[in-house]
Amino acid sequence: MSGREAAKKALEKKKTPRLADVFINAFRKIGQDLIWTGAGLLNYPVHCLGCALEDSTSDSPKLLGTVIDSIDAIDELDAEKALNHPVMQGIIHSHHLIADAIGKETVIMPTNWGPLTIAARILGAEALMMATIDNPGKLLKLMDFSTELYWRTAELSINHPDICGMNISDPVSSGDMISPAVFRKFVKPFLKVLVDRARKIGKYTGIHICGDSTPILKDVLDINPAYFSIESKVDLKDAKEILGGKVCVVGNVSPTGKYLSGTPEDVINEGKECVSAWGDTPGFILSVGCDFPKKVPLENVMALMSLKSE
Asked: Distance (Å, rounded) from C-alpha 102 to C-alpha 166?
C-alpha cells in the first residue's frame, strides 16, 4: 500500500471533532461567506517532516528551527513522512468534518503555506534568500519538493464534494521580501502548477500574498487563480485596473488598523471606503487584508460582516 493510500485509509477512521468544532462554532457565531479551514495550523506540514514545534498557547503553533541545516540536504526530505503523520492526517480529515457540517452554507477553502513559504520553513528564510543568489539550481529543486508537499496534502484536503477548492498563503513571496525577478523565477511557475492541477480536478484556487504585491499583479494574471487576496498596502484602484474582470480580488481592510483598535463605526467606514474604491464592477470580495490579531474585538468583526448585506 502506498503512503497516499495509507493516508486516505486512515482518514476514513480518524475523527478530529474538537478541531473541526473550532471552525464550525466560529461560523455559527459570525456567519462568514468564506472560511479558510486550517488557518492557524499552517506550520504542521513542516513539523510533520521533522521540525520541532511548540503548540502550548492559543497563538499559532511555532516552529523551533528548520527541517534541514543545508540546502545540500534536500534529498533527505520525505513527503511520505509528513503525509503519514497522524497529526497531519487528523488536520486533513478536519476539513472534511467541517464540510460535512457547514459545507452547503458557506465557501470552504482549506489553506496552507505556499511553496516558497514552505521552502523557507524547511531551510530557514535567511538561507533560502541566500540560495536565490548562491545556489538557484538546488533552490529550484527544493521548490519542486515544497510544491509537491503542498499538492499532496491539498489533494487529500479538497477531496470532498462540499469543498470547492484551496487557498495558498505565501507570505515569503511578499514584495516586501523578494523582488519581482525572484518571484518570477522561484514562485510564479510553482503557483501556476498548483492552480492548473486544481482546475483539472474541478476545484478553485485562491492565493494570498502579504505586503505590497503591486509589482507582481500582472504576473497574477498569468497564474490565473480564482481570486487573489491583497493587503491594505495595495491600492484597490491599481488592483482593479490590472485584475478587474479577470481575477477576483479579496481585501483589503487593514487587520491592524481600525479593525484592531477602532470602533465598529470606524470599521464600517473603512469597509465602505474599500467598496467605494472598487466601485460597482463585479469581482471584489470585501475582507480583511490578512490574518488579524486575536485581540480584535468581536464587535469589530461583526461590524465588517454587517456590510455584506448592504
From this structure: 16
For residue 154, count CB atoms less than 10 angstroms from its CB and return exposed for 0-12, middle for 13-18, buried for 19 or more. Answer: buried
Element (H, E) at 7: helix 3-13
In tens, the pLDDT along 67-111 reads: 999 999 999 999 999 999 999 999 999 999 999 999 999 999 999
- 112 φ/ψ angles, rounded to the nearest 5 degrees: -155, 165
Where in the chain are the domains?
Answer: 3-166+178-192
Domain 3-166+178-192 architecture: Alpha-Beta Barrel (3.20)
pLDDT for the residue 12: 46
**Within 10 Å of residue 200's Cβ, how many Cβ atoms?**
8
Rounded to the nearest angstrom, the gap between the alpha carbon of residue 278 and the centroid of all alpha carbons in its chain is: 23
Q: Which residue in the block uniquely carries the three cell numbers 478553485?
A: 204
The pair phi, psi for residue 250, each rounded to 5°, is -115, 130
Counting Cβ atoms within 10 Å, is residue 253 exposed (0-12), middle (13-18) or buried (19+)?
Answer: buried
Give residue for cell 457547514. 102
* The one-letter amino acid at 248: C
Nearest of 13, 153, 191, 32 to residue 97 by alpha carbon: 13
- Per residue in 33-57, pLDDT tens? 999 999 999 999 999 999 999 998 8
Residue 10 has pLDDT above 80, yes or no: no
